[in-house]
């Protein structure tokens, strides 16, 4: 938007704090190559437009804002003469994408001194060469440091997740190994017991009935339901009494296995009816091998399914085999992240999932959203661990207008009032030295705001801290990352 041209006063420019140290000939050059314009209330330039001019406030009131999702968020409002905006990084040249990183509007008739970006860059390099070198070093040095530390943080997170995944995989794998070893012993025992039964005085029809009972036993094991400890104990007592009454020694050792398989005294009565009393114990112990074998195979099956689920979760988390941008279910992303960081959460913290499963899938970069979830969960866990007490992490999803809300609520000590305006600053961290880089929330904000046109904010009181991510439900072209202003 162009304003109304007005005469440029060297005296007025020289009175601004920004130019007060310039020589008269330098002020004269600014007036000659720049211009003064008056703007009526309304926009001056928009965020993301090519940065063509450097604006210095002479009179009036300016408002700077940034686009967060569907909202313009005001970041500065000033009536101070000499404040500036626009192409103030033009001296960096083509090494930086020269666009306005905020929107500028005025709320009353306002005069600006306007200097073309090329002229601003030229006078900076000509008049302040040392300052330009220092500023370039500061800007690109900080950018390089941020990228290096960000990469290091991602590697540390990857190492932590790998350790957690290895730990989670080790449990079912070790269980499968133990069950396989025990299964080998039970099958060997079953072969031995079968030889004894075959050499014994069993009638042909009794053996056939016993085989039928064995088949039905295997079916019952597959359909067995979990019991409470009290229910299991009561049933074990009943089965132990039955076994003792029928002269089967050490019945208390057999009873827990039968109860776990869902067998009862009625089933034992069927076995007793199929064989003679003097061969009953051998038959029961042979069927015990059947029960143990089925239970061990169930354990192996469960363990291998858990390994498969962990591998699937790791693939879901990393998104290695998927397109970077796709329509995704945030609940699947949240669940895969929780599984990957479960070792870090620990037994003294409770995770509550308050999901609205009716929410639709959204267009997103799933791999990068998983990084956001990881950072927010890690911060919540660290905050609750700092108290040394039990805590609860609640993850809630809901619809918020035309956005999808993902909220992470923890019962930690809260964010102190004096640092709340710094939590999203790069390199700011409250963690001990060596435990945090201070880039987790900065990276998360960039992913949510810049890549997803969403919003990341928080509110906190002791015992109730909530980080809220809002993502557009409708598809929108992703915004290219902006350099920080």
TrEMBL record:
Every Histidine kinase domain range: 300-475
Record field: catalytic activity: ATP + protein L-histidine = ADP + protein N-phospho-L-histidine
GO molecular function terms attached to this record: ATP binding; protein histidine kinase activity
GO biological process per UniProt: phosphorelay signal transduction system
Entry EC number(s): 2.7.13.3
Cross-referenced SUPFAM superfamilies: ATPase domain of HSP90 chaperone/DNA topoisomerase II/histidine kinase, cAMP-binding domain-like
Ranges of residues in domain Cyclic nucleotide-binding: 18-124
Keywords: ATP-binding, Kinase, Nucleotide-binding, Transferase, Two-component regulatory system
InterPro entries: cNMP-bd_dom, cNMP-bd_dom_sf, HATPase_C_sf, HATPase_dom, His_kinase_dom, RmlC-like_jellyroll, Sig_transdc_His_kin-like_C
Protein name (record): histidine kinase
Species for this entry: Streptomyces caniferus
Species classification: Bacteria, Bacillati, Actinomycetota, Actinomycetes, Kitasatosporales
